[in-house]
From TrEMBL:
Protein family per UniProt: Belongs to the PNP/MTAP phosphorylase family.
EC nos: 2.4.2.1
Organism from which the protein derives: Schlesneria paludicola
CC annotations in GO: cytoplasm
Enzyme class: transferase
Descriptive protein name: Purine nucleoside phosphorylase
InterPro entries noted in UniProt: Nucleoside_phosphorylase_d, Nucleoside_phosphorylase_sf, Pur_Nuc_Pase_Ino/Guo-sp, Purine_phosphorylase
Length: 288
């Protein structure tokens, strides 16, 4: 018997609350190369995905597969130390279930990180990109199917899925810290193969600045539920001139990891601002 989405969310959230009872204000998705950010979390609980009902298992390179619950800059948060992808064989609904569960636990802000291929010739491996919009070429959407109106509207607006104030704040942090961060459009494809030279050219022509295999499904669900979203991408290789060089997963992981301190600086400063913003907000109850 298939368990409906509302029941899956409830059962997963209850399992997490049984281990960690705080109300998180923000959720973080630690993508490829960003897992070491977990050391900046004052961890109070680490919950393997296998211990959470209905959660998939993380199989992607460098994704540990656990929730880290605790605080960053005094703000209660839950971090996904590893995400899920369509290329692992999961459905769009499966890979986005954790975002819905984090919303049920109480988050109002979602920060997502990923690794991407650069489509602009002036980009350099290791640069950061603050995502301001996206193009979905995955051929999948987690909102397909019967809509649960208690979770969000049938036709959610996607004119600004990424929060403009958070984008500006992230770029200001990078500028003041003295490292490169661009703003641009993320193109999402299914993978798991990297792109051909012709595909790189096509993606740039249609308006893409970087290309990757994640993030957009989670952002669609976040928009559906009314979450504020910030998404940060580490550019791991560049094929903006149409002369793509051979790429492998270990190379991507190494370049992404080299940018972790810069990604971490932005996330910590954003969460510090969020903590100040929440000082006047009393500790509430999780969303039901």
């Amino acid at each position: 018997m298939t368990v409906d989405l509302a029941t899956q969310i409830s059962e997963a959230a209850d399992a997490i609350r049984a281990v960690w009872g705080k109300v998180p204000r923000a959720g973080i998705i630690l993508g490829t190369g960003a897992g070491s950010f977990a050391r900046h979390i004052a961890a109070e609980a680490e919950i393997p995905y296998a211990a959470i009902p209905h959660f998939p298992r993380a199989t992607a390179l460098g994704h540990r597969g656990q929730l880290v619950c605790g605080t960053v800059e005094g703000l209660p948060i839950v971090a996904m130390d590893g995400r899920f992808h369509l290329y692992e064989g999961y459905t769009a609904a499966q890979i986005t279930l954790p975002v819905r569960v984090l919303k049920r636990l109480g988050i109002a802000l979602l920060i997502a990180t990923n690794a991407s291929g650069g489509l602009q010739p002036h980009f350099r491996p290791g640069d950061l990109l603050v995502i301001e919009d996206h193009i979905n070429l995955m051929g999948a959407n987690p909102l397909i199917g019967p809509n649960d109106d208690s979770l969000g509207p049938r036709f959610p607006d996607l004119s600004r899925p990424y929060d403009p104030q958070l984008i500006d704040h992230a770029l200001t942090i990078a500028r003041e810290a003295g490292f490169a961060a661009h703003r641009g459009v993320y193109v999402a494809v299914t993978g798991p193969n990297y792109e051909t030279r012709a595909e790189y050219r096509f993606l740039r022509i249609i308006g893409g600045d970087v290309v990757g295999m994640s993030t957009v499904p989670e952002v669609l669900v976040a928009a559906h539920m009314g979450l504020r979203v910030l998404a940060l991408s580490t550019i791991t290789n560049v094929a903006g001139d149409g002369t793509a060089q051979p790429t492998d997963g270990h190379q991507v992981l190494a370049v992404a990891a080299s940018a972790e301190e810069r990604i971490g600086r932005i996330i910590r400063d954003i969460l510090a601002a969020e903590a100040r913003r929440n000082l006047s907000v009393p500790e509430g109850k999780p969303t039901t």
